């Protein structure tokens, strides 16, 4: 069985730690799933355009993108989103549509059981 090696990126380590603690305290499978996705190689992380978010979401949806959100396309409704990384253009388009961009700890605090949160990517 291959040994799991923690990546040296401090931001990833902090994020994985927060997800692990949320998973243990709430027993919500969403946080464990996000931890596993984030520990994958960087080349396997998803890149999602704003256009795809617009296509697969509705007004007020809560979204997690386990990768990067890119700015191609338009968003016609407001969403609440967390992504590991996001381009400046994507952030601007989400904010202009009335959406919110949350930090991971805020997302875990608002939705501790992960109910109603969708993973896209």
Count of alpha/pi helices: 5
> Which runs of at least 5 residues are low in confidence (pLDDT < 50)?
none
Counted up, domains total: 1
Q: Work out the number of β strands.
A: 5
The rounded distance between the terminal residues' Cα atoms is 28 Å
Helical fraction equals 40-55%
CATH class: Alpha Beta
CATH topology: Ribosomal Protein L15, Chain: K, domain 2
CATH architecture descriptor name: Ribosomal Protein L15, Chain: K, domain 2
Quick overview:
The protein has 121 residues and is α/β, with parallel strands linked by helices. Helices cover 42% and strands 21% of the residues.
Note down, in words, how this protein is organized.
This protein is α/β, with parallel strands linked by helices. The chain has a single domain, classed as Ribosomal Protein L15, Chain: K, domain 2. The protein is built from five helices and five strands. The chain has helices at 10-26, 29-39, 50-56, 88-96, 104-110, and strands at 46-49, 62-70, 80-86, 100-101, 117-119. Strands 1, 2, 3, 4 and 5 form a five-stranded parallel beta sheet that branches. Helix 1 packs antiparallel against helix 2. The relative contact order is 0.18.
Question: Any key phrases for this structure?
Answer:
121 residues, alpha/beta, Ribosomal Protein L15, Chain: K, domain 2, five-stranded parallel beta sheet, 5 strands, 42% helix, 21% strand
Strand and helix map with partners:
Elements: H1 10-26, H2 29-39, E1 46-49, H3 50-56, E2 62-70, E3 80-86, H4 88-96, E4 100-101, H5 104-110, E5 117-119
Parallel strand pairs: 1-2, 2-3, 2-5, 3-4
């Amino acid at each position: 069985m291959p040994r799991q090696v923690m990546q040296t990126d401090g931001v990833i380590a902090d994020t994985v730690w927060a997800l692990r603690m949320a998973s243990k305290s709430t027993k919500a499978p969403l946080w464990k799933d996000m931890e596993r996705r984030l520990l994958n190689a960087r080349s396997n992380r998803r890149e999602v355009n704003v256009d795809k978010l617009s296509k697969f979401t509705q007004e007020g949806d809560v979204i997690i993108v386990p990768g990067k959100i890119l700015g191609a396309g338009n968003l016609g409704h407001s969403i609440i989103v967390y992504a590991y990384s996001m381009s400046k253009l994507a952030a601007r388009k989400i904010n202009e549509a009335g959406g919110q961009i949350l930090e991971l700890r805020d997302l875990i605090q608002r939705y501790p059981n992960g109910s109603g949160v969708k993973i896209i990517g």
